[in-house]
Automatic annotation (TrEMBL):
Record field: compositional bias (Basic and acidic residues): 49-61
Name listed for the protein in its UniProt record: Arginine N-methyltransferase 2
Originating organism: Henningerozyma blattae (strain ATCC 34711 / CBS 6284 / DSM 70876 / NBRC 10599 / NRRL Y-10934 / UCD 77-7)
Family, similarity comment: Belongs to the class I-like SAM-binding methyltransferase superfamily. RMT2 methyltransferase family.
Database matches in PROSITE patterns: SAM_RMT2
């Protein structure tokens, strides 16, 4: 353990500004990186030992992926693990200052430590509320870093999620370093996929591949036939019910759902007796199912066959323009950029009092990412004159629900249901 790490175990109580802020500043100014990990300390010590044993020993300059430690236990992890349960308000103020200083010096918000935990996980172990000033400070750091990264990438959205989402680089004092979100999400059948992921699993990653992949309906899910990726699963039923009631709370609404899947939300929407119900669906197997189940014959239902990117713009050419009380978006294997592109379209199709919502699995692999993306959506929709609020519901933590599919795509105990309206 280095001096920096030791300091952040809070060896002295009370935690005072005079001692801790000064000490931390001194250490960082002396050149110790705010990203210095326990794994780097261990490696340093190993090398020193080897040098003692063999004076000709030379440190290897670059290491293979296998040799590279997969965890990064940063000073902020150590700090979060060491937080006293009986922290006082004034001590909390000091810790917020320490966090500010660490972030200023380039500390990352999204590293995974030796126990596969994020700083967010550790803060929530200390206090389970997402409303503590310390957790909120971490979320803000994540939002700033993500938005900064977007600027650096010239507007390209690098979507965060899942295992090892922060790649570690030995960084100095700049705040953009570790958010290299080179994805290791190859096997994650996300509904909205991380962008620029180097996916082995093309089905989940590429819309075109997905649309050419055979699907299978089981008793409680829609899956890709060979890979068993969960496209839609019935554990989401409560979420769909909530969404349908937000989009069409009264009879006679005009609604559109993008992505039919198992038709769960469309069935709920029908119960609310919409006057016009558009369904946009691109996959041939899903369209066949919709035909078989009589969706094409339902009064007031219009099926838009094809990708929404191609079919939704045709709504602008109708003789009678159509404006929606509710628009829902829940596709598969699309990227966050697709959703941003959808915003361009929906602002022209939404009634002044209308509601847009979507299946919100953004970053749902890790709670801290989920909380960061919750805010990023708020920022993004505000660019379109829209305001996003959330209704929070609990999600049953039943691991058996993933038995049927290759991998889980939702690991948070809560769901933030987005309700987006004109501000
Ligand atoms: C997660 S499912 C939707 C589940 C639906 N919310 C429900 O309640 O059952 C995603 C659906 O989006 C469809 N889809 C994927 N990309 C699409 C696109 N670009 N345009 C239209 N539909 C798309 C898929 O074929 C799939 O049926």
């Amino acid at each position: 353990m280095s001096e920096l790490h030791h300091l952040l175990t809070f060896p002295k109580r009370p935690i005072t500004e005079e001692f801790y802020v000064k000490e931390l500043n001194d250490l960082l100014k002396s050149g110790i990186p705010a990203t210095y990990t326990l794994e780097q300390v261990a490696e340093f010590e190993r090398n020193e030992k080897k040098k003692l044993e063999d004076p000709n020993y030379k440190e290897e300059e670059s290491k293979s992926d296998d040799e590279e430690s997969s965890s990064n236990t940063t000073p902020l992890h150590i700090m979060s693990r060491s937080l006293p349960k009986d922290l006082t308000k004034s001590e909390e103020e000091v810790i917020l200052k320490l966090m500010d200083i660490l972030f200023e010096y380039g500390a990352g918000w999204n590293f995974i430590d030796y126990e596969n935990k994020t700083i967010g996980d550790l803060l929530l172990e200390w206090n389970s509320s997402v409303e503590t000033p310390l957790y909120r400070r971490l979320v803000d750091a994540g939002v700033s870093a993500e938005l900064l990264l977007r600027v650096i990438n010239g507007g390209e959205v690098e979507f965060l999620d899942n295992d090892n989402f922060a790649e570690f680089e030995d960084n100095d004092a700049n705040n953009s370093q570790e958010i290299t979100t080179e994805q290791e999400t190859a096997e994650v059948p996300q509904k909205i996929e991380p962008i620029s992921a180097d996916h082995e699993d093309a089905t989940a990653a590429h819309s075109e591949t997905f649309l050419n992949t055979k699907l299978e309906y089981t008793d409680d899910a829609l899956v890709t036939k060979t890979n068993r990726d969960g496209v839609m699963m019935d554990w989401e039923t409560n979420i769909m019910k909530l969404a349908a009631n937000t989009l069409a709370p009264k009879h006679g609404a005009t609604v559109i759902n993008i992505g039919f899947g198992m038709g769960i939300i469309d069935t709920f929407l029908q119960q609310n007796k919409p006057a016009h119900h558009f369904i946009c669906e691109a996959h041939p197997d899903v369209l066949s199912r919709m035909k078989k189940d009589g969706w094409y014959e339902r009064p007031g239902v219009t099926i838009l066959e094809g990708r929404w990117q191609d079919t939704i713009p045709t709504l602008f050419d109708l003789d009678e323009p159509v404006f929606f009380d509710g628009i829902y978006y829940d596709t598969f294997s699309e990227h966050y950029n697709d959703m941003l592109a959808l915003y361009d379209t929906i602002v022209g199709l939404l009634q002044p009092e209308g509601v847009f919502s979507f299946f919100n699995g953004l970053g749902a692999d890790r709670r801290i990412c989920y909380d960061v993306y919750k805010k990023i959506v708020e920022v993004d929709v505000s660019q379109y004159g829209l305001k996003c609020t959330y209704e929070t519901i609990n999600v049953e933590q039943d691991d058996e629900r993933w038995d049927e599919v290759r991998r889980s795509y939702y690991n948070c105990p809560v769901y933030y249901h987005p309700i987006i309206r004109f501000a």
